[in-house]
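User
Take a look at the entry that follows and flag anything odd:
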Amino acid sequence: MSAYFEYKGIKSTDMHLRILNEISFPSPEADIEFVEIKGKDGELAIDNDRLKGVNFSIPCSLHLPEDKTVEEMATEISNWLKNDIGWYPLRFSGSPNYEYIAMCYEQFNIEETLKTYGKTVITFRLKPYKRFVGEKPIVLSNGQTIVNKGTRIAKPLIYIEGHGDITLKNNGKDWLVLTGVDGHITVDSESMNVFRDNAVQFTKMKAHLRPLFPVLDVGNNKIEWTGNVTKVELTPRFEVVF
């Protein structure tokens, strides 16, 4: 079977694209500023404590079925990649256990290159980490330990059912403090959002904690809570640097 990538839930082979050569992933770069200071040899390095995103290009050739024209497939491929631009999972057949978070946003004309040459280069912007595929939400019991098996802090999705003031602790320290919860609330540490159904609920979250949104440290994370809580469901989103 030919190697393929999957984006927005659609495989490249479904679009009759074949990856032309073996691909290798670039290494993400640390975001470091170098500042020159008079009277000091060399530069001062300021670490912004983050990794930069990377561009990743995939050369592909088009192999048409008998019932399709180049123009039809080029339009379908362009619509697949460029409609609803945003961050989506990007998966590869050669690495089935991981997924990347990617965006295809370049403005060059995929349709024209496919029509003219029968091949094109699809470039994605990748976030500087990959995730384990197939993670499912975990319904926690009070005092349960979650083991972060990745190599970076994880930014979980947390769904809580309960009422009133609720405090979650991680390894004995305040981790998430909520006030006036009314039935249920969701805290998304990746998008930095707090909501109930479609309503924003930022005022329910106490802003004195650092980091502001809860993260799972590498290793053991013992999660416990106080308050009127009937359910805590957590999707960990473990990450590793690629």
In short: The chain has a mean pLDDT of 89. The helical segments are 70-82, 110-117. The first strand starts at residue 5 and ends at 7.
